[in-house]
Write a structure and sequence with these properties.
- With 129 residues, this protein is an alpha+beta fold.
- The chain has one domain (8-126).
- 33% of the residues lie in helices and 9% in strands.
- The chain has helices spanning 18-28, 35-40, 42-50, 57-63, 100-103, 122-126; strands at 13-14, 54-55, 76-78, 106-107, 110-111.
- Strands 1-3-2 form a three-stranded antiparallel beta sheet. It has a two-stranded antiparallel ribbon with strand order 4-5.
- Strand 4 (106-107) and strand 5 (110-111) form a beta hairpin.
- The two termini are 13 Å apart.
Length: 129
């Protein structure tokens, strides 16, 4: 894959019921979760790191105009706190393989057909799109 490290896929939008997320966290981790849990479990990662970095849809579209055409009204948009100024992930080596971050720009093993992140995404170019 030819990631150009543009960082646009590190601004995920997620359709998630925040009440159910809280309920899951309380049930699955009644004594709280650890740093290891946060990097092994996508829902814990969202709870611990992304919720505090939610941005408005307007801000998301300003950052990436391509989101305008497909951003769901009920989705939540986040900026990853581990993306540095050079669009490099500061914790990539700690992430669990096949986890949420490792899968972008794929969804369920298939490359996303709509160009979500950037028109010149290296992943899309590799797939001949």
């Amino acid at each position: 894959m030819s990631c150009k490290q543009c960082g646009k896929c590190c601004t995920p939008n997620i359709r998630i019921n925040l009440e159910l997320l809280e309920q899951y966290i309380k049930t699955a981790f009644p004594d709280g979760y650890t740093l290891v849990d946060a990097f092994d479990n996508d829902l814990v990662f969202i709870h611990k790191y992304l919720l505090a970095n939610e941005i408005t849809h307007k801000e998301a579209i300003k950052r990436n105009p391509l989101l305008k055409d497909w951003l769901a009204y009920d989705s939540h948009v986040f900026v990853c706190p581990f993306l540095n100024e050079d669009n490099k992930c500061e914790v990539h080596q700690l992430l669990k393989p096949n986890g949420m971050c490792d899968s972008f720009p794929y969804e369920k093993g298939k490359l996303i057909t709509k160009i979500r992140y950037s028109e010149d995404c290296g992943y899309l170019k590799d797939e001949g799109r």
